[in-house]
Design brief:
The chain is mostly helical and 427 residues long. It has 17 helices and two strands. The protein has one domain. GO terms for molecular function: acyl-CoA 6-desaturase activity.
């Protein structure tokens, strides 16, 4: 235990209901019952025995335990340094946009504000709301108190993202993030004529991504399915509209008004900064979830799913982006999407260090580890969306998915050696 464990937190024994539900999706106490392994149902895991999967789970929990037991002052300094940098960039951007009539100030201010918004949403907001920094017991950097610079409220996003998405990752009819209810991103999704235009729909979604996510978080489809009435939904809708109104007032009225004669270019600068953030976050999230090789699952997969099988599903249903340290920070370390899905409450600054261990684990057990440079990942996602806009696109995608499976004679031999070492030799 570090000295930071004793930092005060507003009544730390009282845990809000939504956080309790979010914790159900965290490791090592995730869904399923330890040892309740079921049959393998995907081509990428058919070569593994129940014992293999349990050993994978044990290795991953050991990786997690090593990191979580090491958290301390250096980690606290890291997140506080990132927050200071983000706030400095935002202040600099706002000040520069006061003189937005001067083109260099407009360009520099817009760029600074755009980077600040990316950092706030990705490396700070997303990760703080996952509870990655709750161990610090700092009431200002805590999943129950943080409200981010985004149209979605923290509580609604935690419900749809932290709980639903991270618990039921890539499970049809459970994980609503598969296509966000507007895109066909998986061959198993039935084709509909509206998907013919999804290339254009996806472009529009990228430009207004935060608003699209906010609308998605409202789960209006609950009303369409008869699970809730409009009267029951209205409090959530009003809360979201209030948050959206405050965001718009801040970015498009208050700060531009402070610039006086530069009101219009300052407003445009704020709009461009938000657009930069939206397009970037859209690209990062789509690269992590929708590459061709990433797998989806039927609901039957969840029946008696053990913790170890949950780990395997996270690895098969995610993809990484390869790049520099700066790229990783600007993606909120969601460039390590596989590691994030395995350990959503692990501080993001540790993902880069454990990624080689997870990759080696996949190699040894003949599992795919989906990773590639951003241009390749995003290009593949855009191609996939375009191909699935047509009724026959699922056949092409399915063929590419089969070709991506890594299992072969070399992987089988490695797995055989692992099994031999795991079984004590007879005297």
């Amino acid at each position: 235990m570090t000295a930071l464990d004793h930092r005060p937190l507003t009544d730390p024994e009282i845990i809000p209901e939504h956080v309790t539900r979010i914790n159900e999706a965290k490791t090592p106490s995730g869904p399923g019952r330890p040892g309740a392994s079921t049959a393998h149902i995907t081509a990428s895991t058919a070569h593994l025995s129940v014992e293999d999967i349990e050993r994978i789970g044990a290795e991953l929990e050991a990786i997690r335990d090593e990191v979580m037991s090491s958290l301390g002052e250096a980690d606290a300094r890291y997140i506080r340094r990132v927050i200071r940098t983000q706030r400095g960039l935002e202040i600099a951007g706002r000040i520069l946009l006061l003189g937005a009539l001067f083109p260099p100030a407009f360009v520099a201010g817009t760029a600074s504000l755009g980077v600040a918004k990316i950092l706030e949403n990705m490396e700070i907001g997303h990760n703080v709301l996952h509870g990655q920094w709750d161990w610090m017991r700092d009431p200002e950097i805590h999943s129950t108190t943080w409200e981010w610079d985004h149209v979605s409220t923290a509580s609604s996003w935690q419900q749809t993202h932290n709980y639903l998405h991270h618990t039921y990752t890539n499970v049809h009819n459970k994980d609503r993030d598969i296509g966000y209810n507007v895109l066909r991103v998986d061959p198993d999704q039935p084709w509909h004529p509206t998907y013919l235009f999804q290339t254009i729909t996806n472009l529009g979604l990228a430009l207004i991504f935060e608003y699209g996510i906010a609308a998605f978080d409202l789960e209006i489809d609950q009303v369409q399915r008869g699970e809730k009435t409009w009267a029951e939904k209205m409090p959530e809708i009003r809360t979201m509209l209030r948050k959206a109104g405050k965001q718009a007032l801040k970015d498009y009225v208050v700060f531009p008004a402070l610039s006086g004669p530069s009101f219009v270019p300052a407003l445009v600068g704020g709009l461009l900064a938000n657009t930069i953030r939206n397009v970037w976050s859209h690209a990062v999230i789509f690269c992590g979830h929708f590459p061709v090789e990433v797998e989806t699952f039927d609901e039957e997969r969840l029946e008696n799913e053990s913790q170890a099988e949950w780990y395997v599903r996270q690895m098969l249903g995610s993809a990484n982006i390869e790049g520099s340290a700066l790229l990783h920070i600007m993606t909120g370390n969601l460039s390590h999407q596989i590691e994030h899905h395995l350990f959503p409450d692990m501080p993001s600054n540790h993902y880069a260090a454990i990624a080689p261990k997870v990759r080696d684990l996949c190699r040894r057990y003949g599992l795919p580890y989906h990773a590639g440079p951003m241009w390749k990942q995003y290009g593949g996602v855009l191609w996939k969306i375009a191909r699935l806009s047509f009724p026959g696109g699922h056949e092409t995608i399915a063929k590419r998915q089969r070709r991506s499976l890594p299992v072969g004679r070399k992987a089988a031999a490695t797995l055989r050696r692992l099994r031999e070492r795991a079984v004590p030799q007879a005297a």
